Amino acid sequence: MPIQTGLPARLTWIDDANRGEHSFLTREDRCAFFGELQASVGWGGGATNQLVANFKRTPAQIAHECTGERLRRHRARAINQVAAALRSQFTREEVELRCTFVPIPTSKQPGHPEYCDRLERSLRLAFTGYRADIRPLLRLTASTRADHSSAAGRLGYQHLLALTSIDARQLAGELRPVVVLFDDVLTSGKHYKVAKTRILEVFPGQGILGLFIARRAL
Fold this sequence. Notes:
This protein is α/β, with parallel strands linked by helices and 218 residues long. The chain has helices at residues 47-55, 59-62, 68-87, 92-98, 118-126, 157-163, 190-202; strands at residues 12-13, 31-38, 99-103, 133-134, 138-140, 164-166, 178-186, 207-217.
């Protein structure tokens, strides 16, 4: 039985009708999303809000002695749902021949107590059994506070760009024609734009697509 994802069955493209809500995006940016996250309403915003909240559960939340096991199950279920949604959008040919999937770095470096590999894990689960090219091509040189938890002190674009680099260890093979940059929520588009900029510096002309679980609707 297919997993019920709580997400729309089809992707929606960012276009002239909604691009203005994501200040870093321009017409040259090809971005698509599954659902819409209703800002500032939490769980009351519906199924997409609930899915994203569970997907983004932190190690600290899960380590809480009273609720940790329940939250861990909720996060695992959300990762499964996101993986199912991803798998439904790509043909086997696209996965094996056309696309390199790159998770956009989260705010914490690997090894940090609050690091979570949910994006990469979702991609690998989504394309199990396929010859998928999934690479953590981008890395941060220092951990930062997550934007969603630090509205008063979010990193500026130039600061984030300075902290983001290509991981040379991931360059052993050629990229496929389209790099799919994958992230959980599209807000301003800053993280996507930084990732795209760094890739194009090394691979001019590379096809790039942004793919998001949800976009924040204003």
